[in-house]
Amino acid sequence: MKRMVIRWIAWAIAFASFAWVSSAQSQIAGDWQGTLSASGAELHLVLHVSAGKEGTLKATLDSVDQGAYGIPVSAISFDGSRLSLTVAAVSGKYEGSVKSGGTRMEGTWTQGASLPLSFTRVAAQSAPKPAAPTNFDGRWAGELDLGTVKLRIIIEVANTESGLTARLQSPDQSPVWVTASAVSRNAGELRAEFLPLGASFAGKISADRQSLDGTFNQNGARALTLKRVKE
User: Fold this and answer.
1) Which contiguous run of DSSP H or E holds residue 2?
2) Which of 2, 122, 184, 220 shows its CA 20 to 30 Å from the CA of 130?
3) Residue 212 belongs to what domain range?
4) Residue 11 lies inside a defined structural domain of this protein
5) How many Cα atoms are found within 13 Å in the side-chain-facing hemisphere of 180?
6) 96 and 155 in one domain?
7) Count of structural domains, the chain
8) What are 49-86's pLDDT values in tens digits?
């Protein structure tokens, strides 16, 4: 009888802990929008928090004005009222407290200096609907030769109902993806502009559709050949 009571108490404690974790997750999970003001400039940020297994949380950060989306949050914790984030990719940290019944967070963003940053819960934004793929859809990778160093460049292209989209990553410099400001194709040539980087790429697709031979322009034009990467 004692064993049954002990087991029941243990089960009740475990259930209560699970219920608290689930409640905490639901309070913080979702999309949050905020504006960071620094030196007269404003950066619009979107924080995406999702609930994982066994009370874990995952998150990514978008810096909309810089065209950087899906910046990984390397560490996240939430105790029911206070959120702590570490974004190692940009050497940033955020500490905030949930207010107004779970619809607002007020806190501080630290990246060298500390600045106030508030987030407001917003409705999740739906991703663009995919459309029939073009010859350019997929992941392309190559090396940009700068003379003293070579940098890996990755460009991902996808066709949607709203037109072509593209994003760029230079993994030797950062894990952050930068979304193209404009993408176009004309016959066998692809053009993509990345205004936050002051960069652009123009390349012609090969007859076998396995490479893009072109030019990367950022403070000067340099030859860049991208090879199709199998997923």
Assistant:
1) helix 2-28
2) 122
3) 138-229
4) no
5) 22
6) no
7) 2
8) 998 777 789 999 998 888 888 899 999 999 878 999 99
